[in-house]
Amino acid sequence: MQPSSEQSPHHVYPDHWEADVVLRDGGTARIRPITTDDAERLVSFYEQVSDESKYYRFFAPYPRLSAKDVHRFTHHDYVDRVGLAVTVGGEFIATVRYDRIDATGRPASAPADEAEVAFLVQDAHQGRGVASALLEHIAAVARERGIRRFAAEVLPANTKMIKVFRDAGYTQQRSFEDGSVHLTLDLEPTAESLAVQRAREQRAEAKSVQRLLAPGSVAVIGVGRTPGGVGRTVLRNLVGAGFTGRVHAVNSSFDAGRETIDGVPAHRSLGEIGEPVDLAVVAVPADRVPEAVADCGEHGVQGLVVLSAGYAEWGAEGRERQRELVRQARSYGMRIIGPNAFGIINNSDEVRLNASLAPERPASGRIGLFTQSGAIGIALLSGLYRRGAGLSTFISAGNRADISGNDFLQYWYEDPDTDVALLYLESLGNPRKFTRLARRTAAVKPVVVVKGARHSGSTPPGHAVPVSRIPDSTVSALMRQAGVIRVDTVTEMVDAALLLADQPLPAGGRVAILGNSESLGLLTYDVCLAEGLRPRPPLDLTTSATPQDFRDALAAALADGACDAVIVTAIPWVGEDGEAESGDGEVLATALHAAAAAGPAKPVAVVHVEIGGLAEALSAATSTVAQPRPATQPFTAAQQAPPTQPRPAAQPLAAAQQAPPTQPLAAARPPSEAPKATAAQPPAPESAPAPDAAPAHDDPPRIGRIPAYPAAERAVRALAEAVRYAQWRRQAAVPGKVPDFLDDTIDAPGAAARIDALLGQDPDPRGRPLGHDEARELLACYGIAVRPTLPAPGPEEAVAAAARLGYPVALKTTAPHLRHRADLGGVRLDLDSEAALRRAYGDLTELLGAPAELRPVVQAMAPRGVDTVVRAAIDPAAGAVLSFGLAGAPSELLGDTAHRLVPVTDRDAAELIRSIRAAPVLFGWRGAAPVDTAALEELLLRVSRLVDDHPEVVSIALEPVVVAPQGLSVLGASVRLSPPPARTDLGPRRLSNY
Q1: Distance between CA 312 and CA 304 in Å, rounded?
Q2: Which of 72-81, 235-244, 502-511, 852-861 has the lowest mean pLDDT?
Q3: pLDDT over 90 for what percent of the chain?
Q4: What is the pLDDT of residue 849?
Q5: Are 604 and 657 in contact (CB under 8 A)?
Q6: 239 φ, ψ to 5°?
Q7: How far apart are CA 949 and CA 748, in angstroms?
Q8: Which DSSP letter does residue 646 get?
Q9: Confidence category of residue 615, pLDDT binned at 50, 70, 90
Q10: What's the confidence (pLDDT) of residue 468?
């Protein structure tokens, strides 16, 4: 909202302070600066505040605001006096203001760095987290304006406001003076304040999703009067799914006397319904949507699913229409799924919501599915249905103008009905936030992602997101760093989901292979090796094997302590009459289920060829009771009693001689969550073990579906993803850290001063590259020593430089087309005398060109080692990325480069240098001496700290970094500075801009 021309001339209206926020109850509100045009709104707001709240604000009865008060509270200079308001439907529901003060408490201007702050929240909106959100935003504004502390006077009886300050996580001091509590808050963010902010964000955003997925009543706006059409289809699907709430059909064209349609109450508007509506499904043409949204907002609807098309996917005009849709909905406190959405499904027996175009509600299960594409959503629903998998929730968000995959990660994190999260994404609106949320969610349940539009070079229609400059391979590496299981196709997503949803996580990569086809077993063995697993030689049961033989062999494999997972391969077997049987799949499935249920909890997958009914039978639970998966302590090595001794025929796996296996990994929920009872998961009886206890062997058999695959490579790939994810979970349980010794050798204030001086008072927004000496001095502040390089425009200067540096030296060209190209003759090494140097200089200029073109330099020789390259850059979409590879062809030609998000920990640094394919070169490949990887890891940590501490450093390239058996040498460095880019992952909570 722009102010009138009457506003203070000191500063223009700060529109970047405007923000949409999600409140504690899941509703939205807008925070913006108060302007001179808000006088009437302020007076109206104040009239609706109770006398008690007014007393708490002014410490005396204050029934109404005077004209002088109104003027003072609406006129601000946005520097020393700032006021913010929270609005819903365009009206104020809360305000906050600060006034800069000096040490005596009198009004002041900069450089005074303290301000007095005061809040007022309308009574009807207290308890929604409004004051907490306002405190985050007014604190950010104050820091921007050079204010470092807030002072507040609060009456002791105003316990709610005292709690807001106390729980914010800022460093604070309290005292009791003159009958009031005096509070002082240091506004510098702390680890605690950031944790509080993100916890509130998670609860609020999860609640906003929960309100959409579990409404008490649904209105479908745009239900056609004749069969067919989008609205009528959704209405039919809602009723057909058995929605447990109330359903209403709305169409302004209904006849006045019409009471029902398809057995559902029919209304011409929401106002006719006569009761609250929680969710509205909008299925009207785009030009009529604003009218429908206004009707919803005025009647208290909490959320919208907009199926209507004609928005950003239709070009610039549609994009503006989409922005206005989000702006209008949020102004009423509503969140949106869509537009151009396929719909949402919630399979909870307490809800049974199918507000989508899917004709059948999928089976209930433990998988949550989010997709940005309706077509891909249909494909995934079909694939999961064919494979017997069930869903907890399904969301197809279309253009995802408001609610996105990030919101559903917030919801699934604590959802006890979801064990696996699947996301098909075509764009990442807030990549840094996605990485943070995915890492946290992946620590308790698998997150599987397919990223579409990877190579198109453009944003999918309808998606307004930052454009990333990093290649897709880097995006994949960063996702894996966050624990995300990144797969390439929706088929691979379904394959992985089946294994993760119903099987325990493997404790390692040791795989037993058994079956009745030697060829299929060998093929499976080869694929296991290709995927980095450790398969045991396949056990061939021969084509005469019976289901009982399969059962015995599987039982023995599961009991083997040297086995972490089992892949069963099956082809039609030979019956008693000598004829090949396609097999009764149910018989074999029963045998495999029995063995899996009786043995230790290890993942089992089946590869089958033309065995009728096997996949269906394996995907069916062996009981109507679905047991919850272990909830906590997933990495405890609890010993299990050995299983019952298998039949002698199954002895080839030598299970009887193995030590009892350790407890494998299991999917976990957040520590505070316990599984809630549903129709498919009743409360555990009193005799059942505690959720975090390792299952005893004499407990009832473990119930679970066994995933079946039509090809060995699909089963193995799914298992390999589970193995890698389980390994990440084990490592994430004990997070890495940044070593303390770095602090003693880092001069962060000195680096900041140098950066400020280099950028100047009016920095070029395009940034500026640093010269060699400038880069050396900045890097030295972080303990990164770059070997000196001296210019050599002529042979005499080269000789003088060598005398200064000391022989032996290297002579290099720095021309862009020859830089780091020793293969083109632009580098001469080990020049140990003046004669050798003069000779090399002459050869260089004769071969490649004049000195002015070559720009030669002289540098002291470094100890021999492996040439590597370390880079860091800030990507506008992904954030700061640290990269490592071997210099030259491995990284430049073959793309053998590893990446991690900044800041990196000691574990990240160690993994970074070990994750490139050429890593063996660093560790003594073919008899060479291993290099000093500890020094290399320290260098990576220092570069990470520099980029993380100073966002103005937008790129660093250290090339080459020669790593010797003892120590390393940085021979070249380039640094680029730029005004710091905006950070979307820090600062106060806010929804993405529309």
Answers
A1: 18
A2: 852-861
A3: 62
A4: 85
A5: no
A6: -70, -40
A7: 8
A8: P
A9: confident
A10: 57
Give the strand order in the sheet containing 827-831.
Answer: 789-791, 856-860, 809-813, 827-831
Residue whose token pair is 């939205």: 28
How many CB atoms within 10 Å of residue 276?
Answer: 14
Angle at 519 between CA 517 and CA 523, to 5 degrees: 120
CB 392 within 8 A of CB 347: yes
Residue 39: how many CB atoms within 10 A of its CB?
17
Task: Give the pLDDT confidence score for residue 361 in this predicted structure.
Answer: 80
DSSP 8-class letter at 312: G
CB-based contact 746:942 (threshold 8 Å) = yes
Amino acid identity of residue 191, one-letter, is A
The pair phi, psi for residue 371, each rounded to 5°, is -140, 145
The string of DSSP letters for 772-816 reads: HHHHHHHHHTTT--B--EEE-SSHHHHHHHHHHH-SSEEEEE--T
The C-alpha torsion from 381 through 383 and 386 to 389, rounded to 10°, is -70
Structure tokens at 857: 């330099």
N- to C-terminal Cα distance for the chain?
Answer: 15
Residue 252 makes CB contacts below 8 A (sequence gap 6+) with 268, 269
**What is the C-alpha separation between 892 and 874, in angstroms, rounded?**
20
Beta-strand ranges (E) seen in 814-878 are: 827-831, 856-860, 866-875
Q: Which helix (H) or strand (E) holds 185?
A: strand 180-186
> In this structure, which amino acid lies at residue 716?
V
pTM, two decimal places: 0.82
Q: Which two tokens stand for residue 531?
A: 């995927």
Enter the tokens of residue 877. Answer: 């979409």
Q: DSSP strand E in 268-325: where? A: 279-282, 303-306
d(CA 66, CA 71): 9
Tens-place pLDDT, residues 138-176: 999 999 999 999 999 999 999 999 999 999 988 889 898
Q: How many CA atoms lie within 13 A of 689 on its CB side?
A: 17
pLDDT, one tens digit per residue, over 203-250 is 999 999 999 999 999 999 999 988 889 999 999 999 999 999 999 999
Looking up tokens 């294994």, which residue turns up? 499
> Which residue is associated with the tokens 């004769």?
846
Mean pLDDT of the chain: 85
444/934 Cα distance (integer angstroms) = 32
Q: How many other CB atoms are there within 10 angstroms of residue 226's CB atom?
A: 6
At CA 337, angle to CA 334 and CA 340, rounded to 5? 130
Q: What are phi and psi of 95, to 5 degrees?
A: -140, 160
